[in-house]
Amino acid sequence: MQLAGWIRAFPQFSIRKGASWSESPAVAYARARPRTKAVSTIEGAVHAAVDALRAQGNPDYNAKFLKTIKSDDGKEGMIYRFSGSKTGDIEATAYFLEKRTIDFVTLSCRSEKVFEASLSAFEQLAASYSFQADKIPVDPNKQGFFQEGAPKD
To answer: pLDDT per residue over 17-26, tens digit each?
Structure first.
């Protein structure tokens, strides 16, 4: 599903016109990171995220596995719940392992109440995941990639 389709299907995760990211009670976004020798699995990506947030001054930041889902095209994804940040945000991230990338969709909520109310719709959003190989730049130096570099085949 293209991003515009996501926004039409899941307006509760988009930022309303005139509002800002910081004012939204719930937002969702998608990203990809290259698979590297250091981070080549979903579990590795989860540990890297936790380590990064702890290093940024969030000593109580943690992750908990929630469930495995299947995307509409049959791809298996794993959803983790993240909490313990200084801001109090609660997040769920659905990870999908691809040949060269670890793709993920994240729900970020300002409160537990909003998180619980949004989780079902987030799972539907994550289930709409479809890998778009022709949209991924091959060159890891192009915008959109983390700068760790892409693995060699």
So the answer is: 666 667 788 8
Residue 144 lies in a domain: no
Which stretches of the chain are DSSP H helices? 3-9, 42-55, 112-127
CA distance 64 to 80: 5
Matching residue, tokens 């190989």: 133
- Left, alpha or beta for 38 (phi > 0: left; psi -120 to 50: alpha)? alpha
In a domain, 68, yes or no: yes
**How far is Cα 44 from Cα 27, in angstroms, rounded to an integer?**
24
| Whole-prediction pTM | 0.78
Count the neighbouring beta carbons within 10 Å of the beta carbon of residue 42: 20
Domain span including residue 70: 3-14+24-131
